[in-house]
Design goal:
mainly alpha; 176 residues; single chain
Length: 176
């Protein structure tokens, strides 16, 4: 049986290696300045550092200046993707906070997200067969579970209750 050779740990990072890591990351993933800085900080912690003190925030800012990272564009595309999946404004906002999107960028998107609330709720209800999109249910426990699912998806209580209570699509009307 052949002996396995021990893996040597990767060498500590320096400024050039950290920049290469940052470039590789932004080339592979859509990201925000905050997520990129977190990634670089984690890599420094894992591999160690050699040389002048590192500043992952500054490097992430430089990547944004160069146009490799655009928080606003990331936020717009993430919000659009989540609303197309049927998630509500609260869940979209939480995802943007988790992605470390700047508060000003998230606030700027709030009206667009709110405008899509009705369509997103209907998409979610269709996907999960809730309200008029599923079998007629007179069981209160089932309706409560459907309502809870809509609330966990980030939809407004009044909107979710209206969809769960509807017996058919005509009851819902065209818009909220």
């Amino acid at each position: 049986m052949a002996m396995r050779q021990e893996r040597r740990p990767p060498p500590p990072l320096d400024a050039a290696a950290l920049e290469r890591l940052a470039l590789r990351y932004v080339e592979r993933f859509a990201t925000t300045r905050g997520k990129l800085a977190d990634y670089l900080t984690r890599k420094i912690r894992e591999r160690g550092w050699e040389g002048e003190p590192a500043d992952p925030q500054a490097l992430a800012g430089r990547m944004a200046e160069l146009g490799y990272v655009d928080d606003r564009l990331y936020a717009e595309s993430k919000a659009a993707a989540l609303t197309r999946r049927g998630l509500g404004a609260r869940r979209v906002g939480a995802a943007l906070r988790q992605a470390r999107v700047d508060e000003a960028d998230a606030e700027a998107l709030a009206p667009a997200i709110a405008a899509q609330a009705w369509e997103a709720a209907l998409t979610f209800a269709r996907r999960r067969r809730i309200g008029p999109f599923g079998a007629a249910v007179d069981d209160r426990a089932v309706r409560d579970r459907q309502l809870a699912a809509m609330l966990r998806a980030g939809h407004d209580f009044a909107l979710a209750r209206r969809i769960v209570a509807a017996r058919d699509t005509e009851e819902l009307g065209e818009s909220g």
